[in-house]
Amino acid sequence: MKAMILAAGLGKRMRPLTTVRPKPLLKINDKALIDYHLERLAKAGVRDVVINHYWLGEQIEAHIGSGEAYGLNVRYSPESELLDTAGGMMHALPLLGESPFLLVNGDIWCDYPFEKLIGRTIQSAHLVMVDNPEHNNGGDFFLRDGQLFTEPPGNALTYAGIAVINPELFAGSEGGCQPLRPFLERGIARAAVSAEHYSGEWVDVGTPDRLMELDTRVSAMAVA
Q1: Model confidence, pTM
Q2: Sequence-ordered list of residues with C-beta below 8 angstroms from that of 164, at least 6 positions apart, any chain
């Protein structure tokens, strides 16, 4: 199974840190955020990874290169304009192929075991959901019996930015700049989007304060 890391955002909420460095290269315990993902993907048995980029993307390519140092084959999907989440995936499909692929947001930190998703049978998509953080206390979707819903009943949870995506989710779309949620909602309406609740370590590293807090915590864990 191939994997894609989304790394094209501007990182506006993380400024001024992201004025000279793309968010996936910001460091936690002296290691770039994206390195944690690459190492975990390699450990899970993934070999082919596609990374999209836009803002300061040349730094990402210079940092990772071919991926050989991680035991991976890394290819890049540069964007001349921001395409948002779904648009970025559709733009990268020539590199990803027609089979389901593992998707990871480049600006999260987690200890999710990616091997759980390798070879998973899905319909349109399978999402990893987490407890709602303070900055998203209403959640994104409702989880009930392994299926996602846009309305209750069920537990309101937050999409973790980790998923398995079947390219057929985007069937009929012409691409361009498009968010992911409308595609997921259409899949949910067909009962074609499954999900799981993950209760392990997960942080949306979206602000300098969250970055600093996470860096302090992970650094302490490393020396414990």
Answers
A1: 0.95
A2: 1, 100, 101, 102, 103, 117, 120, 122, 125, 126
